[in-house]
Each structure stands twice: as structure tokens, then as C-alpha cells.
């Protein structure tokens, strides 16, 4: 049967056998069936101007039919109906299946969701830590939550969702301008001249009693209030501007807590502004773990570094050698923790005899630990990555 279009006919008529054209995707198809709703789908010979109905296209490929697109006759095409715009993602996150055996099922589920949600964008990527997955673009945080929840409920998918990130406009020293949407591709310190980031215009509507608690949340999130209006009936509207990255730093939960759940939030894209941000890298046993890299503001370097190494110290198990966990920013170690090695008494089975025998065994153990310290590598389990992605 293929993709079914729900349409409103603005001019002419459509019947089975007609050849139609999508204006945006430039793809043609032959109509298999047309009908109306009454309220269930009811097949008919023709749908005419002014009617609302459906068209069975026979198209099996996702991405061709887009919500809001104009469908016209292939032989005599008409101009597109005004108002359509390509959706532009502003928030990015990677989605991985908990089991790599479910990778193809996840691909199929995302393709089915895209049929009804053309603003969802995804492409395949792979991570040495999490395996194969998809880098997805969303219209905002709410869109991300809706998509992941639909994948869990409608398709029974068990997911690993990485920390959301945004797109940064980075100007390199050679003059090139790059759009960076993942921390892994953010250039090293000293290789870029400037960074710009998207800001948003955010509106909060709240009862009078919660205005003061909400005002205390704005400075830590770099938000500036542009307008404050009393709507009466115990309602206040607060308009403010803030960086989009701060919206993802637990801002929704903080507003929810400060207003006891009574505040409502809506936001829209504003403009690109200069950003004081840099990349934080995490090294475990002198080896960089790219899955833990993130882009952070300059003023939060110390705080973010301490948080990530402390959390990782609690998650990773002890090894036979001392494991160093270090947070690097701008080529410097900002925070460091170490996990003490497991202890083993190599002389525990011995009793009596010459003390030199025990001394030889301890010396041999010491040389072995020194070698492991130089050459040993830490295997970070899948569960450890899941715990690091989880927000406390």
C-alpha cells in the first residue's frame, strides 16, 4: 500500500491512476486509491476541490512525503502553496540501542517515525564505546523527549540517549567556518578564532508567588529578562533571552521545582551570538574517552571538570593497577582522581621458611604492577556508559 497522504484539495480533482508530483522532493507517483473520512476512511472515485481526504501513493521510501508539502499534477504542475519551510534541527543527540542486535530494528523504527514527523533527522554513526547508533537532529528538547518516548512505547526500543548538544559556528584560524554539532568534532584549543552559538527567546507564564524564586534561576543560566508583564488573574509573563545550551542544563527541571509545577515555558530561536565555550576531554588511564567529551562554558570549567571525574571515580571498578581519571581543558589537567589498585597478598599461602622467599615474591609483584601501570588499559563496560549518561 505504501505511504498514505492526508490532504486538503485546493484546486481540481484527484482520482486513482493520476500521476502526481511532490514539489519539494521532486518525486512523482501514481495514485493507487483516493477517499474521504466519514469518520473512517471511505474509498471513492474522486476527491474534489474543498474536500479533505486521503491518497494511497504506493511509495515505500521514507523522506519523500513531507508534512506540509504541496502535491500537484505531473503533466501540468502548479506552484507550491506558500508557507512551507524545511525544518531546521537545533538540538542534536545520539541514540543507540542497548543491544547491538536491535540496531536494524531501531533504524526501521526511526524511518517509520519520520513518515509522520518530517522534522526528525537522523544519520548513522558509530562509537567505539557504544557501538552503532544514529545521530539525530531535533527541533528542541521537547521534540527529543517525544521522539525517544515514542520509540520506547510504540516500538518497544531500549535506548541509550547521549547528552544533547547544539550546533556551534566555529571560525578556524585559516578563515574557514565550520558548523560543529558534536563535541568530538569541536576543534582543539588554539585552532579556532571565535565561536558563535544560538540563543533563544523564552517566555515563562507563572503565578505571582513564584516570580521571585524564578528570578534567582536566571543569572546562573546567563539569562537576561527583556520584559515583565502582569496579565492579571494571578498570571505574570516573563520574557528573557538565554543561550540554547543552558536550556539543556537542567533548566526545565529547575523551573518546575521553583514554581511547584505551575509555570509554563515556550521558546523560539533568536540569533547567533559570540560564545565563550571550550571542549572538555576525559582521560582514563592516560587514554582519551571520546564518549565523555563535552562542550562547556568557560566559567564552568572547574565545576564541570570536578563533577565528571568524581562521578566516574564512583562508577569505574578497581583494577590491578592504579587508574588515573583526568579532565583536560585547553591542554591542562583541571581535575584528577585515582582509583586505588586491588590488593593481593602473594605470600598468603606461605608459612614459615626463609624471609627472602617472601621478599622475592613481593619484588616480582612490584615489577608486575609497574609494568601494568605503564601498559595497562581500562575496559569501560557498557553499564558504566549508561550510568554516566544518566542525569542525577
Describe it for me?
It is a single chain. With 392 residues, this protein is of the alpha+beta class. It folds into 4 domains: 70 residues, Elongation Factor Tu (Ef-tu), domain 3 (Beta Barrel), CATH 2.40.30; 72 residues, Elongation Factor G (Translational Gtpase), domain 3 (Alpha-Beta Plaits), CATH 3.30.70; 98 residues, Alpha-Beta Plaits; 116 residues, Elongation factor 4, C-terminal domain (Alpha-Beta Plaits), CATH 3.30.70. The strands form 6 sheets. Strands 15, 16, 17, 18, 19 and 20 form a 6-stranded antiparallel β-sheet that branches. Helix 1 packs across helix 2. The radius of gyration is 28 Å and the shape is globular. The relative contact order is 0.08. The mean pLDDT is 86.
Distance between the termini: 46 Å
Roughly what percent helix?
10-25%
Uncertain stretches: none
Domains (count): 4
What's the quick description here?
The chain has 392 residues and is an alpha+beta fold. It has helices at residues 103-116, 141-155, 211-215, 244-247, 251-258, 301-315, 355-375, 382-389, and strands at residues 4-8, 13-15, 19-22, 28-30, 33-37, 41-44, 46-48, 52-56, 71-73, 91-97, 121-127, 131-138, 159-161, 165-166, 168-172, 177-180, 192-206, 224-230, 236-243, 264-274, 277-284, 287-288, 294-297, 323-329, 332-339.
Amino acid at each position: 500500500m505504501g505511504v498514505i497522504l492526508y490532504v486538503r484539495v485546493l484546486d481540481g480533482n484527484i482520482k486513482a491512476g493520476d500521476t502526481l508530483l511532490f514539489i519539494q522532493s521532486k518525486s512523482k507517483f501514481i495514485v493507487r486509491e483516493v477517499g474521504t473520512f466519514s469518520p473512517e476512511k471511505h474509498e471513492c472515485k474522486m476527491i474534489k476541490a474543498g474536500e479533505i481526504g486521503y491518497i494511497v501513493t504506493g511509495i515505500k521510501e521514507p523522506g519523500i512525503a513531507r508534512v506540509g508539502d504541496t502535491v500537484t499534477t505531473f503533466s501540468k504542475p502548479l506552484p507550491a502553496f506558500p508557507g512551507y519551510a524545511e525544518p531546521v534541527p537545533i538540538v542534536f543527540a545520539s541514540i543507540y540501542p542497548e543491544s547491538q542486535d536491535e540496531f536494524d530494528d531501531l533504524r526501521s523504527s526511526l524511518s517509520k517515525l519520520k513518515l509522520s514527523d518530517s522534522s526528525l533527522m537522523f544519520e548513522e554513526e558509530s562509537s567505539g564505546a557504544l557501538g552503532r547508533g544514529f545521530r539525530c537532529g531535533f527541533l528542541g528538547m521537547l521534540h527529543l523527549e517525544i521522539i525517544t518516548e515514542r520509540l520506547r512505547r510504540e516500538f518497544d526500543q531500549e535506548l541509550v540517549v547521549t547528552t544533547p548538544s547544539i550546533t556551534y559556528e566555529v571560525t578556524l584560524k585559516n578563515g574557514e567556518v565550520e558548523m560543529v554539532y558534536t563535541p568530538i568534532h569541536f576543534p582543539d584549543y588554539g585552532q579556532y578564532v571565535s565561536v558563535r552559538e544560538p540563543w533563544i527567546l523564552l517566555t515563562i507564564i507563572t503565578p505571582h508567588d513564584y516570580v521571585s524564586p524564578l528570578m534567582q534561576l536566571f543569572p546562573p543560566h546567563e539569562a537576561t529578562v527583556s520584559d515583565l508583564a502582569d496579565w492579571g488573574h494571578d498570571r505574570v509573563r516573563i520574557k528573557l533571552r538565554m543561550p540554547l545550551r543552558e536550556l539543556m542544563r537542567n533548566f526545565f527541571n529547575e523551573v518546575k521545582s521553583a514554581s511547584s509545577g505551575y509555570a509554563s515555558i515556550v521558546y523560539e530561536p533568536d540569533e547567533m551570538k559570540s560564545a565563550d565555550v571550550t571542549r572538555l576531554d576525559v582521560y582514563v588511564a592516560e587514554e582519551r574517552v571520546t564518549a565523555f567529551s563535552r562542550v562547556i562554558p568557560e566559567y564552568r570549567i572547574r565545576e564541570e571538570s570536578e563533577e565528571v571525574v568524581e562521578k566516574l571515580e564512583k562508577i569505574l571498578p578497581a583494577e590491578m593497577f592504579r587508574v588515573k581519571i583526568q579532565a583536560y581543558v585547553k591542554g591542562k589537567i583541571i581535575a584528577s582522581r585515582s582509583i586505588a589498585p586491588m590488593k593481593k597478598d602473594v605470600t598468603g599461602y606461605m608459612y614459615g621458611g626463609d624471609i627472602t622467599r617472601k621478599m622475592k615474591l613481593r619484588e616480582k609483584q612490584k615489577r608486575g604492577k609497574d609494568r601494568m601501570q605503564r601498559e595497562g588499559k581500562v575496559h569501560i563496560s557498557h553499564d558504566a556508559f549508561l550510568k554516566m549518561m544518566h542525569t542525577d
